[in-house]
Amino acid sequence: MKNLSVISIVISVIALAWVWFNFAQTAKIQSLSVIQDAMTASQPFSVTFVSDEENFWEKIEAVKANVFKTMNYEIVSSDSLKWKALIQKFEAKYLPLMVTWDAIKKSEIKDYLSQLATEKDWEFSVNISDIASQMKVDISKTFIKLPIVLPHDATKWPEDAKVTFIEISDFECPYCQKFHNEAYKKLIEKYSDRVKFVFKNLPLDFHKNAQKAWEAAQCSLRQWKFWEMHDKLFANQKSLSEANYKKWAAELWMNSAKFDACLDNWETAAEVRSQADQAAAFWIQWTPWVFVNDKFVNWAYPYETFEKLIEAELAK
């Protein structure tokens, strides 16, 4: 009887999971359907896209055919003074940029677009990449602004390198550990003489040890031991604690008194926060996130993905 009870519970859990999965999928389809209906019913509206991508119009036509059926549009490059001013106005960090005007407020799609838009002086800048992804249209982002390398960022190797590799990471994130073990080590071994590596933090709120782990790494930076502590933290991800940070600092031949005081007094908390704020300014909400010059990858992809990006940038 006991075994039957356990089996019944397992079957119930599986059934509930299946119902929830189907509900989520249905909700997603219904959401897309609502958007398509609103777009189809809306009054004609005009949009300007700022993009330097070749044949960008083909992708916009695909989006228009699926959703923006009443949209009239023009595409301009980012090198004209007019559109440089527009990019500056919206503090755009990547292309393509989609801009529409006050007429959008009177249309049926205003509520939907306003969730993805930035409004300034009666103009809306809309994230077309996220909209397109729902239509299975790949409109990738090219960053025109990159995170600034801050004085307290950990950097490695040539300052004048042709390629800058910026990783935004979390020491408690399992995907960051996966990236570190399977890709990052190999990249450093191969490109240490040609690529500048920069490491920034984004301690995710649901990782209870991430903030203090980052403070420990920043305290280590003050003693020129950041990368050694960086490796320790990832190697011992399941044992993150303040006691262990102090133990590892001693093992790495740091000045224990200085390290302990730095950690206990929250001396690097502001540095960690400034890096996290910078990530937030780029709408980065998960880790790992990697910039290879103006290209980006937002997942723990295999080594070959990053090797290809770096090689393409080095060849320019």
The class by helix and strand makeup works out as alpha+beta
Q: Tell me about the biggest sheet? A: 5 strands, mixed
Q: CATH superfamily of the largest domain, called what?
A: Glutaredoxin
| Distance between the first and last residues' Cα | 70 Å
- The CATH class of the largest domain is identified as Alpha Beta
- Using only C-alpha atoms, the radius of gyration works out to 24 Å
* Count of domains: 2
- Strand segment tally: 12
Shape: elongated
Figure out the total of helices.
12
Q: Low-confidence parts, pLDDT < 50 over ≥5 residues?
A: 1-35
Corresponding CATH architecture of the largest domain: 3-Layer(aba) Sandwich
Helix fraction, binned, reads 40-55%
Topology at a glance:
Blueprint: H1 2-41, E1 45-50, H2 56-66, E2 71-76, H3 81-89, E3 94-95, E4 97-100, H4 110-114, E5 117-120, E6 123-126, H5 128-134, E7 142-143, E8 154-156, E9 163-169, H6 174-191, E10 195-201, H7 210-221, H8 226-235, H9 242-251, H10 256-264, H11 269-281, E11 289-292, E12 295-297, H12 303-314
Parallel strand pairs: 1-2, 9-10
Antiparallel strand pairs: 1-4, 3-7, 4-6, 5-6, 8-10, 9-11, 11-12
